[in-house]
């Protein structure tokens, strides 16, 4: 597998990562084993619940709960900084005034105002 | 599980430390799903907090990297690689094959964007920079050329149209009795 080249639109699979074959340093191997142990533990928990014949309810996924909770509750960790205030103004305040500014520019400035027919191109 | 709870309920009622309802409430605890410390919290500042957060999210302590603490609302949620579900191995037996995800695996903050029906971060045939350059190069060039065409228009040389029969004297309502003036539109 040493001469494997990536398929054009796919990432290289983990099993064909050269680190799996050539990186024999104990630290790397230990790290990989720890990750595999975590994954195996989660798999075991899931399989126990899945194949339990007395189970009547849905299997709850705590990672999903944490994700939903994190996405739904960002405000306790919000702090007004330069970047967040700028984003807030750009997306929250500016769109409220865009139509008004457009109207102003079209009707009341000399550039666009060609007499009384100022708004006549806006037809329903 | 439910049987055990019922037994404890009966025991608490029998012991009856206080009135009936308070004994009920103190005696048995509903086995609720997520406890307070298994939910996401604030940004971890000390190494112990980091280790606890890594354990909570089922990550190695070395792998756990929270989003930078700049007030954007992430808290201690881990920063995972920005890889879409398109890129995951299609042949591995995932627990949830349509999502290509295992049970309990930490989810990316933008997981709902990286689904298989949405954003795809698979490698492109040519680097992104090349693609951007080609697109904007072409569009910019065309815009520039159209602009130059507006500024410096060039036409074919033209002259007024020449008609036969003395510039169509009779067709244009000329008097047939009178002799028209001779119009010569050619040179030999």
From TrEMBL, chain A:
Coiled-coil ranges from the UniProt annotation = none
Q: Which UniProt keywords apply?
A: Electron transport, Membrane, Mitochondrion, Mitochondrion inner membrane, Respiratory chain, Transmembrane, Transmembrane helix, Transport
Would the keyword Nucleus turn up in this protein's UniProt record? no
Subcellular location field: Mitochondrion inner membrane
This protein's membrane topology, according to the annotation, is: Single-pass membrane protein
A GO cellular component annotation in the UniProt record: mitochondrial inner membrane
Quaternary structure per UniProt? Complex I is composed of 45 different subunits.
Its protein name is NADH dehydrogenase [ubiquinone] 1 beta subcomplex subunit 4
Q: Which organism is it from?
A: Poecilia latipinna (sailfin molly)
Automatic annotation (TrEMBL), chain B:
The way this protein sits in the membrane is described as: Single-pass membrane protein
A single GO cellular-component term from the record reads: mitochondrial inner membrane
Q: Out of the domains of life, which is the source?
A: Eukaryota
Electron transport listed as a keyword? yes
Q: Which InterPro entries match?
A: NDUFB8, Ndufb8_metazoa
Q: Where in the cell is it found?
A: Mitochondrion inner membrane
Keywords attached to this entry: Electron transport, Membrane, Mitochondrion, Mitochondrion inner membrane, Respiratory chain, Transit peptide, Transmembrane, Transmembrane helix, Transport
Quick one: where is this thing mainly located? mitochondrion
Asked whether the keyword Transport is assigned, the reply is yes
Tell me which Gene Ontology terms the entry assigns under biological process: mitochondrial electron transport, NADH to ubiquinone
The job of this chain, per UniProt, is described as: Accessory subunit of the mitochondrial membrane respiratory chain NADH dehydrogenase (Complex I), that is believed not to be involved in catalysis. Complex I functions in the transfer of electrons from NADH to the respiratory chain. The immediate electron acceptor for the enzyme is believed to be ubiquinone.
Q: Which PANTHER family does the protein's record reference?
A: NADH DEHYDROGENASE [UBIQUINONE] 1 BETA SUBCOMPLEX SUBUNIT 8, MITOCHONDRIAL, NADH-UBIQUINONE OXIDOREDUCTASE ASHI SUBUNIT
Subunit info? Complex I is composed of 45 different subunits.
**What family is reported?**
Belongs to the complex I NDUFB8 subunit family.
Query: Which named protein is this?
Result: NADH dehydrogenase [ubiquinone] 1 beta subcomplex subunit 8, mitochondrial
């Amino acid at each position: 597998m040493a001469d494997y080249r990536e398929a054009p639109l796919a990432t290289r699979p983990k099993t064909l990562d050269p680190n799996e074959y050539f990186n024999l340093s104990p630290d790397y191997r230990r790290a990989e084993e720890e990750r595999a142990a975590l994954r195996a533990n989660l798999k075991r928990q899931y399989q126990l619940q899945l194949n339990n014949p007395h189970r009547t309810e849905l299997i709850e996924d705590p990672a999903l709960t944490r994700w939903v909770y994190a996405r739904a509750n960002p405000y306790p960790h919000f702090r007004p900084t330069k970047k967040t205030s700028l984003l807030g103004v750009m997306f929250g305040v500016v769109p409220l005034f865009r139509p008004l500014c457009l109207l102003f520019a079209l009707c009341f400035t000399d550039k666009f105002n060609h007499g009384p027919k100022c708004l006549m191109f806006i037809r329903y | 599980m439910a049987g055990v709870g019922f037994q404890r309920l009966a025991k608490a009622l029998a012991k009856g430390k206080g009135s009936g309802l308070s004994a009920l409430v103190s005696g048995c605890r509903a086995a609720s799903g997520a406890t307070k410390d298994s939910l996401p919290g604030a940004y971890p500042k000390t190494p112990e907090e980091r280790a606890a957060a890594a354990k909570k999210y089922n990550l190695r302590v070395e792998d756990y990297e929270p989003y930078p603490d700049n007030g954007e609302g992430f808290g201690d949620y881990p920063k995972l690689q920005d890889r879409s579900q398109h890129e995951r191995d299609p042949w591995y037996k995932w627990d949830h094959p349509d999502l290509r995800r295992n049970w309990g695996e930490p989810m990316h903050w933008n997981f709902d964007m990286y689904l298989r029906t949405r954003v795809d971060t698979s490698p492109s045939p040519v680097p992104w920079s090349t693609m951007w350059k080609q697109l904007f190069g072409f569009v910019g060039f065309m815009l520039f050329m159209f602009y130059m065409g507006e500024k410096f228009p060039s036409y074919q040389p033209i002259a007024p149209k020449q008609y036969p029969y003395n510039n169509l004297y009779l067709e244009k309502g000329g008097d047939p009795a009178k002799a028209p003036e001779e119009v010569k539109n050619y040179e030999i």
